[in-house]
């Protein structure tokens, strides 16, 4: 059975991607069918180490689905990767697995170097060995799609043009530096060995199944728990926000129709200051789940800034629109409404995820 190998598919974006993929969203599958020339029924081999960020509960809906196979493994384990390639013969790799949280990278960068750089290197080498042994037509059709971040481009001033694919790399945090290094490895494996790679650099994602250490789910969880809402610095840092479902559609488009060796920036055309995001979120919660008295805005607290905090990210997503016809479907308002509704409708998922690792992190990062 044709299959794709997904790494990090128990994390936030990976789980959304796997669920969407197996849900066969129409337009994307039509495009895939057309690209391959016959109906495609890819199964998913989902490889995840299950760090604190990986969550099997997010994949509950696939428990009895024969099209999905979950394998607990580390992308840095070469023997395990070789075995999985040999056994499943994937036609593509979609590489999400990473350490992904900037604040954690400041407290402990080692895991970021190990997984994002070392793990990507090992995965590339296992992929290369498998790919080089494929028959010629399969080699040409094979794809390695690397999921990266806009943070590799560094920080923008208020009037700077948004990041384009040609913007020079200038990563500032251990997280973004490790992702930049992984992007360079992927690029080099194409230029040196001919591996058919694609890279996407996207902005801040939000939506269902996101671990509540990142801004939006953290604010939702803490607001509902009656806890302070910690806004770093002056709250004027700007991020571009991309609904995760839109991101998954972009990845499918790049996998199906992207030009080999190219990078594609993926953004939501939604630049917001952090304080605006938190205000909008508080106002939505006031309407959907009002407090006994007053507004959730009363819980906002300005706290010490993150060291090296990038001031502004913004994405120029015209290339992917021009070449592949992708544009985000959600506005920030519609995406946020869906996201808040999902967290309110999934109290068991939220309760489970706010146990051990979450509490430990809250103590480390926010206790003071
Ligand atoms: P996440 O932290 O929610 O999930 C990462 C997943 O990778 C987890 O399931 C974890 O268990 C797994 N993993 C970690 N180390 C591993 C290893 N050594 N071997 C196998 N699995 C391992 O991250 P996310 O938000 O879903 O991000 C996915 C990808 O998208 C990452 O590469 C990240 O850099 C990138 N990205 C994320 C965002 C965002 O806003 N979340 C924005 C831009 C880019
Ligand atoms: P985050 O979700 O960590 O993503 P990134 O740092 O990768 O952009 O943070 C988004 C923005 O929100 C960022 O400018 C930092 C800010 N932030 C807060 O103000 N308070 C918080 O508790 C967190 C986690 C983030």
CATH architecture of one domain: 3-Layer(aba) Sandwich
Content-based structural category: alpha/beta
Give start-end ranges of low-pLDDT stretches: none
Give the radius of gyration: 20 Å
Number of strands: 12
- The CATH superfamily of one domain is known as NAD(P)-binding Rossmann-like Domain
The level of helicity is 40-55%
Instruction: Give me the CATH fold name of one domain.
Output: Rossmann fold
- The CATH class name of one domain reads Alpha Beta
Strand content: 15-25%
Q: Order of SSEs, N→C?
A: EHHEEHEHHHEHEEHEEHEEHEHHHH
Distance between the termini: 53 Å
- Shape, please? globular
Strand order, biggest sheet? 3-2-1-4-5-6-10
Main sheet record:
7 strands, parallel
Task: Describe the protein's architecture and organization.
- It is a single chain.
- The chain has helices spanning 12-22, 26-36, 78-88, 102-107, 110-132, 136-141, 174-193, 215-224, 244-257, 274-288, 318-324, 332-345, 347-353, 356-366; strands spanning 3-7, 43-48, 68-72, 92-95, 143-149, 197-202, 204-206, 229-232, 238-243, 263-266, 271-273, 300-303.
- With 368 residues, the chain is of the alpha/beta class.
- The strands form three sheets. A seven-stranded parallel β-sheet has the order 3-2-1-4-5-6-10, sandwiched between helices. Strands 7-9-11 form a three-stranded mixed β-sheet. Strands 8-12 form a two-stranded parallel sheet.
- Helix 7 (174-193) links the parallel strand 5 (143-149) and strand 6 (197-202).
- It is globular.
- The structure holds nicotinamide-adenine-dinucleotide and thymidine-5'-diphosphate.
